[in-house]
Design goal:
247 residues, seven-stranded mixed beta sheet, globular
Length: 247
């Protein structure tokens, strides 16, 4: 019987080769170390990421010394406006401030509070009417520095005497309120006479009823000194720097 020989076992090499490790990714070069006393180098910005900037319009206008009186004149508006005006005066008492006004009026005593502060700051005040200036807002418009009170050509102005409504009051209280209202009326008439240069008697007649005016009529009355027209805007005239228009 033939005998089948088993195959000889494989020889193991004397110095086996160890397995090779997997290749590592190329290392990212590290940013250069900062020198002593210097800030570390800033990595280049990714151009794919858009940089967004948030702009606060109110703050930008305040930086450019432009203030706005818009809407109803009341205590809240007066507080904010007075704070801003006093801040700008403290920042630079000689630099002018431009006040843009678009208001249908409001509380007389709130307006008089603003008027008192405007009259007692050292900062030159340039007032500009856009839209409308009715009632106490027209008084504030006229309270700007003489020669620097202006209005856009399509704005409207209106002055009148104060009014009030006190329902369900006793007769004695009605008499007291009427006396206070008369004092307020006299105060406004005297203020308008001083700001416009018109005789007090003319002011009393003018405010007896609602006196609506165009900007040309307002200039003749003494509420403004100049008119901002489209031709001036095309010529590059700044409303804050508009000069008195020749009559």
């Amino acid at each position: 019987v033939a005998r089948q020989e088993s195959p000889a076992p494989a020889k193991t090499p004397a110095n086996p080769t160890p397995p090779q490790p997997a290749a590592l990714p190329a290392a990212v070069p590290a940013a250069p170390a900062a020198e002593p006393g210097k800030a570390p180098a800033t990595p280049p910005a990714d151009p794919k990421k858009a940089v967004q900037r948030t702009v606060n319009i109110d703050q930008e206008m305040l930086k450019s010394r432009r203030l706005f009186l818009t809407g109803e004149v009341n205590d809240d508006m007066a507080k904010i406006f007075v704070q801003q005006l006093l801040f700008l005066e403290a920042d630079d008492p000689n630099a002018p401030v431009t006040i843009f006004i678009n208001s249908g009026g409001g509380l007389v005593h709130s307006g008089l509070a603003i008027l008192d502060v405007m009259a007692n700051v050292s900062t030159p005040l340039k007032t500009v009417c856009y839209g409308r200036c009715f009632s106490i807002a027209a008084v504030l418009l006229a309270a700007g520095t003489p020669g620097h009170r202006s209005a856009y050509e399509h704005a409207r102005l209106m002055i009148h005497e104060p009014s009030c409504s006190y329902p369900k009051l006793s007769a004695s209280d009605v008499i007291l309120k009427a006396e206070e209202l008369r004092n307020t009326k006299q105060t406004l008439e005297e203020v308008l006479s001083r700001l416009t240069g018109k005789p007090l008697a003319d002011i009393v007649d003018a405010v007896a009823r609602d006196r609506y005016m165009s900007v040309q009529e307002g200039r003749d009355f003494g509420l403004v000194d100049s008119i901002i027209s489209q031709s001036e805007r095309r010529a590059g005239v700044d409303p804050g720097k508009v000069q008195q228009e020749k009559k």
